[in-house]
Amino acid sequence: MQIFQISGDADKFGYLRTPDLPKCESGESPYVMQFIDCSSNEASLKDSWRSVPLRTDAKSRRKVDIWNAGPVPLIVADTFLQTTPLRSYIERSCELLPVTVDDAPAHVLNLWRTDRCLDVDGSIYHQKLEWKDGKSYPVRDMLKFLRFDLALMPTDRLFKVGGGLRSQIFTVHFPDEERDDDFVAIYRREGYKGLEFVLRWDTDNPDAEIKAIF
Question: Among residues 7, 15, 47, 197, which one has the fewest Cβ atoms lying within 10 Å of its Cβ?
Answer without folding.
Answer: 47
